[in-house]
Amino acid sequence: MxxxxxxxxxxxxxxxxxxxxATAAPDAPxxxxxxxxxxxxxxxxxxxxxxxxxxxxxxxxxxxxxxxFVAISRNLVRYRPADLRAWLEARVAPHTAKARAILGH
Length: 105
Description:
Layout: E1 2-3, E2 8-10, E3 13-16, E4 30-33, H1 43-50, H2 54-63, E5 70-73, E6 76-78, H3 81-90, H4 96-103
Antiparallel strand pairs: 1-2, 2-3, 3-4, 5-6
Helix pairs in contact: 1-2
C-alpha cells in the first residue's frame, strides 16, 4: 500500500480523494485504472454509458456476453472505459444478418 499526498495504490488500483474525481458514493474515493489513469465506472455509470439499464448489465455479468469487468471484491465491481468501448466495437455490424451472427440469434 502506498500513501501519498492524494493517492493511495492498492493491488494495481489507484484511489484518489473524492474532490479530485467523483465516481462513487459520497465520501468514497474514486478508483483509477493504474495502467492508464482512467476512472473505473460503477455499474450505474457503465450502464448509462452503454445505454442499458443497470439490471441488464448485472444480467450480463451473471450469464456472460457482456463487457469485461473488474471484480474488486465479492460485492463490488467496476468497469474500465476501455473495456466498454471494446465491447461496443465488437458489436458493430454492417447489416442485420451480421448482427444476428454477432448476437447469436
